[in-house]
Amino acid sequence: MPGVDPLKACLQEYRRRTPASRRIHARARKFLPGGNTRSVVYFSPYPFVMARGRGCWIYDVDGNRYLDFVNNYTSSVHGHAHPRIVAAIKEQLERGWTCAAAIESQHRLAEIICRRFRSVERIRFCNSGTEANMMAIRAARAYTGRDKILKMEGGYHGSYPEVEISARPRPELAGEAESPLSLPDSPGIPKGVAREVLVAPFNNAEAAERIIRQNRRELAAVIVEPMLGIAGQIPPRPGYLQFLREITEANDVLLIFDEVMTARLAVGGAQEFFGVTSDVTTFGKIIGGDLPAGAFGGREEVMELFSPERREFIHHAGTFNGNALAMVAGMATLKLLNATAIDRINRMGEYLAQELKKIFAEADVAARVTGAGSLRHVHFTRGEVVDYRSAMAADEIAARVFFFSLLNEGIFISPRGMFCISTPMERRTADRLVEEAGKIVGVLKSLSKR
Ligand SMILES: Cc1ncc(COP(=O)(O)O)c(C=O)c1O
């Protein structure tokens, strides 16, 4: 309709469909700041409130149902309430789920992960991806006796000071693209932290080499997501990860792969998918079967620093580390996520990406679809997306219109454009997304500025 602001129209329809969510959010604001306890799930004017989920569907408190392409930011690889995972959790519940002793399922899940990820010789469990990265960095510092780390601009490794440096900086404040400044992402991060964290643009081998060489005497580790995730599923350029592997080895610096998101790309994770291994790898999301769990593991000589059988060791406690519910849910999840299942969701991700590219190209919408395997992202920009800054060049209004238009038709992707495949999805699930996207390409084209 000429003269109608597409975003306003989408928001009006969203409000009309979600009055109970709106009421609950208003009440929640009295007790939770902004009605929220997990920044990433908030979007304005208010997020819908989920009532339940089953398979690839979720249902909100207003009775709307959505095809869930967010999958709890990729952790729900088998969708919701998968019967085998439910059975594993129920069986454990009957027997109790935590105690201050070793639990056999910890050993079993550790063995499963070590056998899948060939660079992981020893592993430890914690409660989240954030904690896993915290401890992996600690291990690298203890092992090398150095303090600094190098991370990528736009690289997300969780929410604690050391990694909340330049995960989402404002590009206009972040300095030269080749030599990004180390900027705290939010208030409360001590100034000294930024001095210990160096930042490089993703996919830029020369910049990484320069920074590593200049700082080699103080640098403990390079931490990188093999595919930049929250920044927009940006794959590594051919040879980039291999280069990081070689340059870190040559300079005696540890390489940490954050596989919290990418572990689902192959049986052996992104390191198998892209054919490059790390010294230390961090995990979260799928490895605890969608219950709170994280893990970090790697070369025996690094990980043995945690052994309490040593006279001096890295202290790593945690009341809920390796809790039995997450361990059995993780085992059930990884058992289901075999090579056949992974191949199927990866192929579906590829199919969906190709179909979306086709409809955007035919309608001349300024859009790029990035990602690999089952992990994908739509960026509304004409330029190639290879790093954080090229992703930030995308049009935010177009992304918001795309998000709300799909949401109003019962399709849930992330507000910034991320979508991923879960195993209960079928070809027709992917086709629904393409069909709905096809209905709004005209509007998206009218918003395409670049
Ligand atoms: C690549 C990556 N690392 C770390 C994290 C943090 O994990 P958690 O939210 O479990 O702390 C995330 C979360 O999305 C992530 O995507």
Give the tags.
globular, 2 domains, four-stranded mixed beta sheet, Aspartate Aminotransferase, domain 2, alpha/beta, Aspartate Aminotransferase, domain 1, seven-stranded mixed beta sheet
Verbal overview:
The protein has 450 residues and is of the alpha/beta class. It folds into two domains: 6-77 and 339-447, Aspartate Aminotransferase, domain 1 (Alpha-Beta Complex); 83-336, 3-Layer(aba) Sandwich (Aspartate Aminotransferase, domain 2), CATH 3.40.640.10. The protein is built from 17 helices and 14 strands. The protein has helices spanning 6-17, 19-28, 71-74, 83-93, 104-116, 129-144, 191-196, 205-215, 240-250, 269-273, 300-303, 324-336, 339-362, 388-392, 396-408, 427-439, 441-447, and strands at 50-54, 57-60, 65-68, 122-126, 148-152, 197-200, 219-224, 254-258, 280-283, 294-298, 368-372, 375-379, 411-412, 418-420. The strands form three sheets. It has a seven-stranded mixed beta sheet with strand order 4-10-9-8-7-5-6, sandwiched between helices. A four-stranded mixed beta sheet has the order 1-2-3-13. A three-stranded antiparallel beta sheet has the order 11-12-14. Helix 4 runs antiparallel to helix 12 (324-336) and helix 8 packs parallel to helix 9 (240-250). The longest helix is centred in the C-terminal third of the chain and has 24 residues, at 339-362. The two termini are 23 Å apart. Pyridoxal-5'-phosphate binds at residues 73, 128-130, 133, 156-158, 225, 229-230, 258, 260-261, 284, 294.
